[in-house]
Write the structure tokens for this entry.
Amino acid sequence: MDLVLEKVNGQPAHLPVELRRCGPEDLDAMEQLQREVHAGMPHPEQFVPDTRDQLAACMADGVCVGVWDGETLGAYFTLRCMGSSPENYAAFMGLPPAEWPRWANADSVVVCAAWRGNGLQRTMARAACGWLPEGIVGLGATVSPDNAYSLRNALAEGFEIVCRRPMYGGFDRYLLRKIL
Ligand SMILES: CC(C)(COP(=O)(O)OP(=O)(O)OC[C@H]1O[C@@H](n2cnc3c(N)ncnc32)[C@H](O)[C@@H]1OP(=O)(O)O)[C@@H](O)C(=O)NCCC(=O)NCCS
């Protein structure tokens, strides 16, 4: 999908970019972008980076989309279909185990600092949902209550807050859900 970024480094721009699914050949670029974004965050506890294995698993059982300027990756978004795993966010929502395979985890989103302000989180979320396997009825997600940008985008995309609880070994998070 062709997109145009109207803002780069906060300045008006007209940068054609491409949104497409990522595959294993893109893992190095995803890891590098994740490292850069995490290192640049004033509050890094708001984003728990994925391991390479977790990113690869998203490609295998879910959907990864990235936004590219030529060969340069500037943003990505991942969805995981975790089936009956207790790490499926559906498990934290009190849904019966039989329902879990019909829910996907909205796992992570990063946009490089220069490209922020183009609504890429929401654009990538919508595109990724279009590639979900059939039968998925809902999405779960977690967001730090202090991550105003990500939370605002999630609520604007139709997520609602289910509860607030420690996740990932003690990080304060809202658990959110969206019915598709
Ligand atoms: C959350 C995130 C993906 C949102 O990026 P985005 O889709 O480009 O954000 P938006 O287009 O909605 O930006 C809206 C406004 O907020 C600003 N903004 C977005 N993220 C910002 C950030 N992390 N710091 C400062 N300002 C930010 C944008 O510049 C824009 O400002 P403007 O309206 O004056 O132009 C991005 O901030 C990010 O990568 N954060 C680090 C990783 C993270 O927290 N991920 C979520 C947890 S998994």
Remarks:
- Residues 160 and 176 are 5 Å apart (CA to CA).
